[in-house]
Every structure is written in structure tokens, then in C-alpha cells.
Amino acid sequence: MDRRQRKTRNAIFQAFSALLETKRYSAITVQDIIDAADVGRSTFYAHFDTKEELLRAMCDDIFEHVFSDEVMREPEHDFSSADSFRDRITHILCHLQEKQHHIKGIFAGECGEIFMKYLREYLREVFDRQLPEDRPEDGAIPRDYRLNHAVSAFAEGVRWWFGGHGEYTPEQISTFFFGTVDC
Amino acid sequence: MDRRQRKTRNAIFQAFSALLETKRYSAITVQDIIDAADVGRSTFYAHFDTKEELLRAMCDDIFEHVFSDEVMREPEHDFSSADSFRDRITHILCHLQEKQHHIKGIFAGECGEIFMKYLREYLREVFDRQLPEDRPEDGAIPRDYRLNHAVSAFAEGVRWWFGGHGEYTPEQISTFFFGTVDC
DNA sequence: ATGGTAATGGACATTATGTTCCGTATCTGA
DNA sequence: TCAGATACGGAACATAATGTCCATTACCAT
Q1: How far apart are CA A16 and CA A38, in angstroms?
Q2: What is d(CA A65, CA B18) in angstroms, rounded to the nearest whole number?
Q3: In which band, very low, low, confident or very high, does the pLDDT at B113 lie, cut at 50, 70 and 90?
Q4: Which bases of strand D have any atom within 7 Å of the beta carbon of a protein residue?
Q5: pTM for the complete prediction?
Q6: DSSP secondary structure string, B131-176?
Q7: Which bases on strand C have an atom closer than 7 Å to a protein beta carbon?
Q8: Please, what is the average pLDDT of chain B?
């Protein structure tokens, strides 16, 4: 990737992130962004078609970092043991915490809902590997329901964490989750 | 309320609801709405300040119906017994199902996230009465975390239900939830 | 019925959007 | 080092949406 591209892309991310802490997402115009980033109008549109795509790109940037563990890529890892799954979850929480400065701005506004949607998509993959198959004692509860249940509860737990409960450590949040979830 | 007001308000709701099934929420303009509802521009703004407020009003309309049970209003009812709580939840699910035609349009678009937010607010009140106080065996898990966990899991369960799993009855969804949640 | 009240419709200025152009600055490969 | 390629900046543009204004009309209560 061209250094010039990286520079402007970064400037736009930076500006957008800063703007999100001062005003609502839908109130932010492309004009605001290019003013803050100090780039030309055409430059912005050369990088992103819309404001929504910019947000999507920022989220992807964050998730790329949070979920791109070597441990995740390697298929030989065994995620069926509860311990390694718990480690993985704690790991994700740690990475999220590292990026908290970027995330908090996103969560603050109404676009937190959009961030959550993407987060759930990524989490679903992780949880899908872990969730046990249907057992007789689960009765008629569909596996897909249980998967959705666990993913949603965890994702909203993250939002709860960032929304005024930042005093807890990733390990504690992990403990809260595994102490409450039933999967 | 003036009959004229009711009429226009209804026409706008109707038009907006219909539009939501054909295009994305953010792609819908005020112009689209007043064209479809066949009302004047100033009429729209006399009723709602923004498109967002219209959505909020529509959601409130729905929730007014879903949550306005006499059983909820009367404080003498005892929600501490698990059975009555389960009845209450099933009741809510039934009411949601009645309104499914309106809700499905909202869920379809990106404004589903906004609907979910309001839904969680209403649910939080209901769950708050039910969730037991912190018990020793819960260890250090904050009550607020458990509350958020249960509310989120249930709300997302509703979305799951409306998003392609409409074949289940309210009673079944209720069973799924109480079979999975741990509160 | 009638006067007051409030909804209505259409016109308006304002603002944001997304595109296009061209000159300039920067990068890359030979 | 040089030349071709690529990204940037700035300005101007047509288009479209926004929110406000005011005169008109329909409704409501007395």
C-alpha cells in the first residue's frame, strides 16, 4: 500500500475517531471529516464511498487486530476444552482493551449499534467452534438459539464493560461471563 | 387527541412501515415518507422533528401495547415467583407476535438496532423486578452485569425469532430462554 | 352556525452530497 | 537518476434533502 494512501487513511481515521467523541455519528458530515483530517473532498471519496463504509473500515481495522491471533488461524488447536476457550475469550477481551481508545468513541454514539453488529459476526465464528452439539438434556432447544444467546450475552457484556464499568480487568469480565452463561 | 392528528399520524406510520420493507432505513428520506403518506412537508415536521423521532414514536407505539399490561401496573403482583415471571415473559412474546407485521419491517433494516435498544430499555424494567439479589454463591458477579446479560440474551432471542425462526410459538421461545439463561 | 384553533400545502433558502476537472506532489521501477 | 504512474488538493458543479415560513383550509367546541 502506498505510503500516501496510508497517511491519508490514517488521518481520516484519526479525525473521525476524534469527531465521534464530540458529536453524534449521524450529525457528523463528510465535510466535518475532511476539514478535521485536512484532506481534499475528492480524496475522501477516493478512499471511501460513504460515511458508513468509513465506519465499517474502522471496525474491520479494530477486529483485524482483536481476532487475528495465530492461535485462531491454526486449525490444529483444540478449542473443545473449556480452559482454552476461556483463555481465548480473555485474550479477546485484552485486545479489545488495548483498542479501547478507538472503541470508546464508537460506542459513545449511536454507531455503537453498528459496531456491536460486526462484533457479533466475528464472535459467532469463535463461539461456533466451542459450543457443544445438541445434547439430549437440552431438550428441544436449537443449537442456533444457544449460539445466538451466548454470543449476544457476551457482546453486550463487552458493551457494559466499556460503558462505565472499565474498572474491571479482562479476567474479571471473563469470570462474570462464564459464571453467568449456560452453554 | 384531535381526529386530524390521529389520521395523519397513522398515515405517516403506515407509509413509513411500508417503506421500511422496500428500502434501507437510512436511504429513506422525509420526502419519500410524505410522498407515500400523501401529506405536506410542514405536516410531517409538525408531528415529528426528525426521521429518528418518527422511528422512536413508532417503537413507543408498539411497546406501549406490548408492555402495558394491567398485571404490570399493579404493584401488588408478586414477580418473585419464577412461574409468574415466566408467564409474564410469554405474555410479552405473544404481544410481540401480534405486532409482528410492524416489527418485521423495522427489524429488516439497520434500524433494527435502534428497535433493539428501546426493547432492552423496556425489558430492563421487567427483568429488574425479577432478578434475585446477589447471593453468596454468585461470587463477585455484579447484579447489574447479570441483569444486562439476561436482558440482552432475551432481546436478541426475540430478534432471532423474528429473523427467520417464526415457526416457533411464544411458549417455545420462552422455554428456550429459560432453558438457556442462568439468572 | 360561527369564531378560534390547529393542521395543511407549497414555496423557499440553506446545506450536504457525490462527481469532475486539472495542476501538483510523491512514489516506484528501470 | 529519470520517467511513467499514481495519489493528492482545490475548486466548481449539478443534484437532492433539509427544515422553515406563511397563507389557506378544514376541523372542533360552544
Answers
A1: 12
A2: 40
A3: confident
A4: 6-12, 16-22, 26-28
A5: 0.87
A6: SPPP-GGGTT--HHHHHHHHHHHHHHHHHHHHTT-TTS-HHHHHHH
A7: 6-11, 15-22, 26-28
A8: 87
